[in-house]
Fold:
Amino acid sequence: MKTPTSLEDLIESLRCLPGVGPRSAQRMAYHLLQRDHAGAERLAKSLAYALEHIRHCEKCNNFTEEIVCELCRSERRDATLLCVVEMPADLLMMEQAHCYKGMYFVLMGRLSPLDGIGPREIHLDRLLKRVQDGLVREIVLATNFTVEGEATAHYVGELLRSKEVKVTRIARGLPVGGELEHVDSGTLAQAVIERREI
Amino acid sequence: MKTPTSLEDLIESLRCLPGVGPRSAQRMAYHLLQRDHAGAERLAKSLAYALEHIRHCEKCNNFTEEIVCELCRSERRDATLLCVVEMPADLLMMEQAHCYKGMYFVLMGRLSPLDGIGPREIHLDRLLKRVQDGLVREIVLATNFTVEGEATAHYVGELLRSKEVKVTRIARGLPVGGELEHVDSGTLAQAVIERREI
Structure:
């Protein structure tokens, strides 16, 4: 008794998804073939379509179906500001906060030497070129405040030190509505160190 | 700023996978497009191929690329025995145990009224027909010893009571190498109740 080859192929293929091991892959394959043919067909099609049509914006490196994305082409954005974020989801969060009207550069990752992700993998050569377009005056580093995000911000900061641009980092501190009693001490310490005059 | 439609489609499509919510779907889509184009292409292709070619065996209901699967066509199997399992993975485990040389019927699930899975969804009508082929003498119920697996075994047992076949259930008890000290009391109790003469 053998599993059909095409089923084995499907199970093996599903393992390329992050966080999916042999058992989940098998469960997923059974589910798709047994309970959700329509969803599976849609997935196969949208995956093939996305692979063919989605590329990286030549300016901001975000996912887009065009050469330069809608945001980068917009004339209502402030071209003197360039915000560096790790992932497209971070860009979306920034936009939802309605606090920023400049341009973006999406690293599509963060420095993580242990995972083999160095400066080249997060496209810092392209960022460097992007910064020197003659319009950008300030780089706003908005990578995460994780160890890797901080290291990335530090590295990018050093990289841009010699360029004629101001480099800033988004602020750390208590969240809006945050209470001292419930905040972790690291955040509180940073909030005190980075206190500002009012 | 908008996410490209094809990317949104892909994220939405990935949510049909079991256990994948909006955040994992987004992470998966980014991973596929950013880090594993080859794997994504393979997934799209093998999924499309599997959808087109994989069907259910007319005799045992297992996944196959043929009308009647290799195992059901084999003349070296004992056609008087029919083992009922929940999933293809269970059939593989039975085969790996090299303890059984009869035929199978794969329910592709278990009775679970709360999830809307009733007798029709686990193909009991087809099982009933399969049992009456004139060759089968004994039905071996090998559903899991979970609440749902037990309920399924009980239901199938009742269903076949009036037919001219013997219905058996695989044994419950201590696992091979199991120690009384470390086994749960439910299993130990069953092992005592189902003790047999030696």
